[in-house]
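Marked as duplicate of an earlier ticket. Keeping the data here for the record.
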Amino acid sequence: MKLDKPLVAKADLLIRKPAAEVFEAFVDPDRITKFWFDKSSGRLENGKSVQWRWELFDFSIDVRVKEIIENARICIEWGTDNDNLTTVEWTFAPRTDDTTYVSIVVSGFSGDADKMVSEALDSTGGFNLVLAAAKAWLEHGIKLNIVADRF
């Protein structure tokens, strides 16, 4: 199979909280660990590298922040192999004073077509679960454990 265009994974969801609060949930290690992974070596900041860890799976991943625009955009590169990094971009678009439309786009998949399609599908499903978990936690204070329960 040959791909004519680069693959991207997308996930989008409205979260009924102000953009500043939703943005902060994704950059602050004390908040993001409530709905996604277990540990972070630090806050996401421009030019900084951190490590995210999922204890249940004994898995960690290195994250390099490419750009942060406060309350509007997060762009990172991540991967377990420096030659095969993908880019993840979050955008936070206020719809009203108390709602935010969050979009996540993952790009830069590498390998043969089958591998890229598999990774794009996995990323689409995974980031939709992350957004659902973030929504439940931010709007209702509920920890769904949805990421851990996926596997």
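See parent ticket for discussion. The two ends are 29 Å apart (CA to CA).
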